[in-house]
Design brief:
Elements (H helix, E strand, L loop, with lengths): L1 H29 L11 H14 L3 H27 L14
Length: 99
């Protein structure tokens, strides 16, 4: 019982950690070219926090995590594209249309 609970907890931690890294990266990309309002710019403060989140695990750990996260994102994108591209039509369902 504890083994499955430990796996669930470690999976949740992995998902949350990956989500923080992904969201921080997306925020940096989206707001990289913003109009700064000065010294107390909230976007600049948020960008600094995102940089801190990305550099917190260390350079080696962040580099080691980028490849698996990119592979997971690629697999997720491919899965979504395949599920959306399979069309269910009346012909594929072999429905006979009689008038």
């Amino acid at each position: 019982m504890t083994r499955s609970r430990n796996r669930a907890v470690s999976l949740i931690v992995l998902v949350v950690f990956s989500l923080v890294i992904f969201c921080s990266s997306v925020f940096i990309i989206v707001h990289a070219d913003h109009d700064c309002t000065g010294e107390d710019c909230t976007v600049c403060i948020a960008l600094a926090e995102c940089h801190k989140n990305l550099n917190m695990p260390g350079t080696a750990a962040a580099g080691a995590l980028k490849l698996p996260m990119m592979l997971c994102a690629a697999v997720l994108c491919i899965t979504v594209i395949k599920s959306r591209s399979e069309h269910t039509t009346l012909i594929s369902l072999k429905v006979e249309l009689l008038i």
